[in-house]
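pls design
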């Protein structure tokens, strides 16, 4: 497999179940970088939640955050950020609150929500971001935000998603990174569209790019390349969209696939 760029989702894909990059994964990706293969993380996480991992990876390449709303430069500053104006963000928050979702919005290194609760505590723990309860979220929301996140039971997310897409058609892009997350971003925002932008900026091509993902927000970038790989622990719809299936995230599936199909294949070709 002739590959010169690798794009990977993070949670439930590149990260293990302890939300860590294993030593083996770091070593494989370091070897890729040393051979001139570009390594590009692509996450639903906001930039500040990605930073500890990006520092560990140290790929010298851009990264994709907030499901494509943020493009992050190699020096870990924002290349670009698409945001909702406050009025539309408040409309989305109102809709999600009416559906009894926990709701939060983002600005810089913080996320904001109405009152202290388990979803906010769990989000802080899993992302490492700073969170703040602000009381009346609608009144507080006077600034642009790259994402509105709603959290509820998976069956509620599945029910509300088509309702939200119909109500905000043409004005909002919705994504599901985990079964209990309903994520709203500006129109046309997706990991796939962000990858298209990066391809123009740094010259990567679909036919020589390998893409990994596990959830619905990854499908747009899996569709961008003929070299798409779904995690064994991924959703059925994602597996159906991918050309290959690799071992699950807790078994370093991404790194094992890369070592076998990219690094070892390149060594064999070089020896011929």
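designed seq:
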């Amino acid at each position: 497999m002739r590959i010169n760029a690798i794009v990977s989702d993070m949670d439930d894909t590149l990260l293990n179940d302890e939300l860590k990059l294993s030593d083996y994964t770091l070593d494989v990706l370091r070897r890729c970088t040393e051979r001139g293969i570009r390594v590009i993380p692509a996450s639903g996480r906001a930039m500040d939640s990605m930073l500890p991992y990006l520092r560990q990876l140290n790929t010298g390449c851009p990264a994709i955050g907030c499901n494509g709303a943020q493009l992050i430069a190699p020096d870990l500053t924002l290349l670009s950020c698409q945001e909702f104006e406050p009025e539309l963000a408040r409309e989305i928050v109102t809709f999600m609150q009416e559906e009894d979702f926990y709701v939060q919005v983002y600005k810089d290194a913080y996320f904001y929500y109405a009152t202290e609760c388990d979803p906010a505590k769990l989000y802080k723990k899993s992302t490492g971001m700073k969170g703040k309860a602000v009381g009346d979220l609608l009144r507080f929301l006077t600034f642009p935000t790259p994402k509105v996140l709603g959290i509820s039971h998976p069956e509620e997310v599945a029910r509300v998603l088509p309702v939200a897409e119909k109500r905000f058609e043409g004005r909002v892009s919705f994504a599901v990174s985990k079964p209990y997350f309903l994520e709203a971003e500006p129109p046309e925002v997706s990991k796939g569209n962000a990858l298209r932008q990066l391809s123009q900026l740094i010259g990567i091509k679909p036919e020589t790019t390998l893409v990994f993902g596990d959830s619905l927000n990854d499908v747009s970038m899996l569709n961008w390349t003929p070299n798409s790989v779904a995690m064994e622990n991924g959703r059925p719809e994602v597996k159906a969209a991918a050309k290959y299936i690799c071992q699950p995230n807790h078994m370093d599936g991404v790194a094992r696939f890369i070592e076998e199909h990219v690094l070892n294949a390149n060594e064999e070709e070089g020896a011929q």
